[in-house]
Write a structure and sequence with these properties.
Distance between the termini: 60 Å
Radius of gyration: 21 Å
Number of domains: 2
CATH architecture of the largest domain: Alpha-Beta Complex
Strand content: 35-45%
CATH class of the largest domain: Alpha Beta
Number of helices: 3
Strand order of the largest sheet: 11-12-7-13
Structural class: alpha+beta
CATH topology of the largest domain: Outer Surface Protein A, domain 3
Oligomer: single chain
CATH superfamily of the largest domain: Ribosomal protein L6
Amino acid sequence: MSRIGNKPVSIPSGVTVDVSALEVKVQSSKGNLQFPLFPEVTAEVVENEVIVTATGRGSSKKASALHGLVRAHIANMVEGVTNGYKKELEIQGVGWNCKMAGSDLELSVGFCHTVKVTPPEGVNVELKSPTEIIITGIDKHAVGQYAANVRRVRPPEPYKGKGIRYIDEHVRRKSGKSLA
């Protein structure tokens, strides 16, 4: 049995959770999310808590893994529709910046051309300054994946530290070649 899967997920006020045999739907004023259920796992709502149980179908190792996975996804969906998720990125490099082109993010990071990165539906992009990007949304996976896609355009390099990085990311620096 999964230790994470055994913990119930509490449902705050203003959030509704609908569980069917095939999927779990979480709704609030911020939006709605859904996640499919696996045959090895069932979920039910009991007194403002979602309880996930392993049914025992399939191998016990897979059922235990899916037990914790489904519980974690439901907890992330409840957290997302109540508070939302946020990732912050910063651009470091002389003359490197970004701007909004409609709903797309346009990056000017040392290439001979600008790079446009289109956010998926449900993900909002704001610019705090030309070198600071704030990505918000209710879906944890979508926000994290879009932030990783933006960072992948120009990841931080270890010699000068130039590139796109998360605000709290620490880049290990290397010393360059030295002449003796």
